[in-house]
Structures are given as C-alpha cells and as structure tokens.
Protein: DUF4105 domain-containing protein
Organism: Mucilaginibacter achroorhodeus
Amino acid sequence: MIDRIRLSLLKISVFVVLAFSTATASAQLSASLPYKDNAIDSLSANSSYIDEQAFTASKAAKLSSIFDDVNENSLQKKVSVSLNNSRDRRQLMDYLKQLEIGDNNAAGNEARNKTLFKFANLFARLKLYPLAMKCFFKTLQKDKKLKDNEEAAAVDSLEIDTSQNTDLPINTKDDSLAYVQSLQVRSDKSKRTTYENISGTFNDGKQAVAYALLFHVKQPSPGKKKVHVLAYTGHTYITLIKYNTDSTYVSCSFGFYPKKDHLFSATPWFPSTSSQFKNDAGHKWDEIIGKFISRKSFEKILKLTKEYNDVDYHLSYNNCTDFSLQAAGVAGISISNTDGKWFMGHGNNPGVTGQSILQGGYGTTDKQPVTTLFKSLNTSVTEK
C-alpha cells in the first residue's frame, strides 16, 4: 500500500517538473522573438479599404474627349465639323455642360474658366455669337467658394434681370439653335436689310433675361494701322443678342453701308450718298469687343438704328465705324484713337479702330469693371 502511494507521488512530481520546464521553454522562445500585440494574419486581413480606393480612383478618372485638344486651330476645326452632325453636336453640348459643373476649388475654377474662355473665342470665330457670349458669361459667374475674386465682383455689376434665371444654362436648345445659326453664317456675303427686319428679329413674343452687344472690326490689313488697301477700307459692324427665359435666343449682326447713287458715291470726291443696312451675320472680322447690356441700353441701340435708317452715309463723319462706335457707346464700351486720315478726308475708320483694340485702347464708360468686356481676336491677327 505504501509502495503504491510512493509511486503515485513520484508520478505527480515528474508531471509537475515536466510542466514547469515546458512553460519556461515557451516563455524563453517568446522572449527571443519580436513582440507584436494583437497581430493579425495577413491572409485574413480585411481588404475592403484597398478595393474602395481602387474603385474611387477609377470612378473619378476624367474621361477623355476630342474637345480636350489644346491646339485652338485644331479644336476649331473639330468643333466646326461637329456642328454638322447631330450626335457630335450632342457630345459638344454635353462637354460644355460638364464645364458648367466644374470644380469649386481655386485651381479647378481657374482651369474651367480658361477652357470656357477658349470656347468663347472659338464660337466667336465660328460666328456663333450667342453661344460665345454664353461661355464668356460663365467665366464671370460667381464661384460659391471664391466670392471675393474679381470675376465675382464683375458678375454682380452686370445689368441683367436678376429676378429671372441668369445662369444662361447650356442645354439641348443650344444644339438645334447652334446648327441653324451655323447654316446662316456660311456665306460671308452681306445682303441688304432694313430697320424693320432688324427690330422684328427681337419681337419673338418671349420674355428676355439678358441682352448683349458685340462690336466687330474688319481691318483692311489685319494687325496693321492702314486706313485702306487700294480701294478696300474694311468694315465695322455690331451684333445684338436677346436671351430668353426659356433658354432660347435671337441675334442679329448688321452694319451701316453706303448705297451708291452713282459710280463715285462714297469716295473722296463724292463722300456723301444714300445709306442702307446689311445683314453681316457671315461677315469676317479681326477684332471683337463684347458686353452684356441692360434692356434700356438695348432699346436705345435699336432707337439709334432707326434714326440711322433715314440718315445719309458720309465717308468722313457718318460711316460704318461712326454708327458702330455710337452703338458701343450706348452699351458702355469706349474705344480710343479711332481717327485716321486719307486722301481728301479723315475720320473714324476700321483700320485705326482695330489697331486701337489690339493695343488695349478700350474700356467701359459705366461703373462696370473692364473684366466684363469680352475681347476676341481672329486667327488672321493672332498669327501676325
């Protein structure tokens, strides 16, 4: 019996010794390895964060477009071609609508405005003036996060109907209107029109939300202060635009011309003659100054047009540039140094006026900042 008890105690002692040795060895092994609290097996780690990052990056990636072309001449050709195809026009309008959304940070806002201004120039060169001024207007729109910048101050001073939607949004109506207008400006031949036709263009029975005027100059020799090249003296004309609350618009480009009573009418020998207006929708130009104007100014310009309907043309003091400068003055645009001399005469003329614009000789006569003026130069001038 005693032997059995001794045997049991011996077994227990051996078990305790072995257990203690194992625990000590385990502790030593742990101490010899780097310690990592709550370590997780990399194979069982949650990878949802990585997947979300990858998804977000691919989703935020900007889709490329044919209209991302940085070369203006190349882009102008692409835009011109796209106007003849309904699918391409929709893509163009979608692209412009995406620019409207833009980024709210300073860098995004600056990039957006540069692109919009580039398209404003392109549409002006394609003679799609309402769309050009729409794009320009959006460069002036107040950014919600950048209320203190110059563009915000400029848009606050625009004389437009603030009781209506003044965003001038780009939408599907621009698609059809741009196509119709692109057909109308294909011919650069100016045909006779009347004050009744001009004023009737704007009697569309729709409520206006904004008005704009563009002052166009075609120099005899682009980029040079020449009054004439042989018998060619250039031309100055204006465009009036009425934007409606339903996102439609109407416009009319026209200029004051001599109506020759005989072969030598409107020449240095016989400077005075009868007058007429012509539709200049397709007329070429070298320089443009544009501005959004009030309804009151718009109506005054139409009144001025009516007065010129019964006035004789005079080469020295009542020519196309005189009429256009008066209209620009009503709109709040001033252009200095427009007078030049020629054989047996002198006065305002396209050659000197265009050169003055090129040299920055323009401004505003009202309280609006100069940033509210849209200036565009045609490639014939910029390539000089």
User: Anything to note?
Assistant: The chain is about 45% helix and 20% strand. The chain has a mean pLDDT of 79.
